[in-house]
Every structure is written in structure tokens, then in C-alpha cells.
Write a structure and sequence with these properties.
Blueprint lengths: L8 E5 L4 H12 L3 E6 L2 H12 L5 E5 L5 H15 L4 E4 L14 H29 L2 E6 L3 H4 L5 H21 L4 E8 L5 H4 L4 H6 L16 H8 L10 E4 L7
Parallel strand pairs: 1-2, 1-4, 2-3, 4-5, 5-6, 6-7
Helix pairs in contact: 1-9, 3-4, 4-6
């Protein structure tokens, strides 16, 4: 480890498992104090304990990213504990499946509310602090589905496509203050999420679509996220970074 984020404070939403957990642990390994903003508080506490066992700082905060009050409480807790904020990773997301014909409006609203509105609420809550210190990084985890679409998950694809437009707009607003905003687009990844709508066999069969010959692992997202969050990524903003083994070439 190189302490690339030493002295920085990072919020990672949905960091109790999967990609969010990997990024939270990766950031802590580079010296960042990490706020684990997690709806499942017990899972958040587990990641907090993992980080603390490495003698780095962490704070788990029960957070519903789709709820404005919950988001504001989380940001206030982070500031009270650490005094400042430097990095936000909007990772929390859900992926139920339903055809458009059968999809209930409530399900559409839930997915948009978590995946897209949640990123907006978290970003809005931290932006004033990034502007005040004239620096900061916002990284939103979108998806290759934003570019390809998603059978039986139009709400998910729409939410992730919306994130790209949002992050590009946010990049323009943060630029005068030295802040950056970018989107990471993972391909199919070995997490609990795809297992909610495909079998184990179907999941690993997707490797045949990947030029590098395998599906993604959560650790594959850590390097790109670290680059965007660190000083090395200071001149990269408004970009969509695909991390999918070449399955989508954009």
C-alpha cells in the first residue's frame, strides 16, 4: 500500500457487501478514514470492524440513501466524527427484475429512488463541503447496463443511464472549485446482486462474452476507484470508466 488517501475521509454507500465493501476496504488500505453508509447496519458494522482491525479509522452509519433525512444524518455523523469530507462513492443500488408490462409503478419508483435519487441526495449533501474546501471527488457506480439495456430490468438500466447524465452535469458544477465527478461502469461481477436474477451456472457462463476470459471480481473495481479518488486522477472528470474485461468497448 502507498497511503495514496492518507488524511482523506471517504463516504462509501452500500459498503456492507460486494463492490462497495471492496472499495471501502481498498480506500482504508490506502489510509482513508471510511464512512460505511449502509442500510443493513449489522453488515456495515462488520466492515467497520474489518477496517478497525487494520488500525485504520471507520464509522458505520445506518443509511437509507433514498431518504433525505437519513442522508443528511449520515453526512452530519461523518462530519462530527472526522471533521471534513473528501470523497463520496455512490455505490448503493438494487436490481429487482420485472418486465415493463408487469412492472408496478412502486417497483419503478423504488429502483429510481435508490439508484438515481439516492446518488443525487448523497451528492447534494456533500457538495457544499467540497466547494468550501475547493477540492473533492465524487464517484458514482453506474453499470454497463446503462449502455446495453437490461432485459426484465428497464428501471435498473434507466437509473444507471441517468447516473451518467447526472455525473457529467455535476462535473461541470464542481470544476470551478477543483472537484471532480466520474462514473464507474462495472460489467457482470461476482457479487450477490446478479445471483438474484440468474443461476450460478448462468453467472459464470457470462465469461464467454468477456475478452479477458472471466467475469469481474469486486477487487477489480478498487484500482479504478482509487485512481479517480486520488491525486493521480485530478485531471479526470465527467468521464465514464468501464471496468468489464472488454465486454463493452466504449
Amino acid at each position: 500500500m502507498t497511503d495514496r488517501l492518507r488524511g482523506k475521509v471517504a463516504i462509501v454507500t452500500g459498503a456492507g457487501q460486494g463492490i462497495g465493501r471492496a472499495i471501502a476496504l481498498g480506500f482504508a488500505g490506502e489510509g482513508a478514514a471510511v464512512v460505511i453508509a449502509e442500510l443493513n447496519y449489522e453488515r456495515g458494522l462488520e466492515v467497520e470492524r474489518e477496517i478497525r482491525e487494520t488500525d485504520e479509522e471507520a464509522l458505520a452509519v445506518e443509511t437509507d440513501v433514498s431518504n433525505e433525512t437519513s442522508v443528511e444524518r449520515m453526512v452530519s455523523s461523518a462530519l462530527e466524527r472526522f471533521g471534513h469530507l473528501d470523497i463520496l462513492v455512490n455505490n448503493a443500488g438494487i436490481y429487482p427484475t420485472s418486465t415493463v408490462e408487469e412492472m408496478a409503478e412502486e417497483e419503478w419508483d423504488q429502483v429510481i429512488g435508490t439508484n438515481l435519487v439516492g446518488s443525487f441526495l448523497c451528492s447534494r449533501a456533500v457538495v457544499p463541503h467540497l466547494i468550501a474546501q475547493r477540492s473533492g471527488r465524487i464517484i458514482s457506480v453506474s453499470s454497463g447496463r446503462a449502455l446495453e439495456g437490461a432485459r426484465d430490468a428497464a428501471h435498473y438500466a434507466a437509473s444507471k443511464a441517468g447516473l451518467i447524465g447526472f455525473i457529467k452535469s455535476l462535473a461541470l458544477e464542481l470544476a470551478p472549485y477543483g472537484g471532480t465527478a466520474n462514473a464507474l461502469l462495472p460489467g457482470v461481477t461476482d457479487t450477490a446482486q446478479p445471483r438474484g436474477h440468474m443461476t450460478e451456472e448462468e453467472l459464470f457462463a457470462r465469461a464467454s462474452d468477456v475478452p479477458l476470459g472471466r467475469i469481474g471480481q469486486t477487487e477489480d473495481m478498487v484500482g479504478p476507484a482509487l485512481f479517480l479518488a486520488s491525486h493521480a486522477g485530478r485531471f479526470v472528470t465527467g468521464q465514464t470508466v468501464l471496468v468489464n474485461g472488454g465486454a463493452i468497448r466504449w
